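Re: that chain you flagged

S.,

Sorry for the slow reply, it's been a week of failed gels. I finally had a moment to sit down with the sequence you sent. For the record, here it is as I used it:
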Amino acid sequence: MENAREGLIRHETHPRGASAAEGGAPGDMCLGEYVDRIAKELHERVEHQRAVLRKALGESDAGGGKIPYCPLVDCARIERLRSAIRETVGVLEETRSAFKSKRLEVMRRKLCEILAER
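Prediction finished late last night. Pasting the structure tokens below so you have them in one place:
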């Protein structure tokens, strides 16, 4: 594990083509400083990409169209909703022969499609 850390520090690269010598010799920093530097550079890159995307959207979307927020990580609320939908689909499947309703069948299929979208 220590060799991997040393290898990471020795082979450090910088954005925009800067060499390790320009930012201080990689061997002169501890692993914590190295991680902090990488995190700072990643943050700068994300901010740059955000600015580029905002500019592109501003030029092509004069109406300022809204899009729904969809987190990359499932939160507890979304998981509870999925669980409720799964339970509803299960009940609809269990009672399918008892009610023989086209509308309930359509709703069951719609809920199954929503669950499959993930």
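What I noticed first: The helical segments are 2-10, 31-60, 76-94, 96-99, 102-117.

Talk soon,
D.
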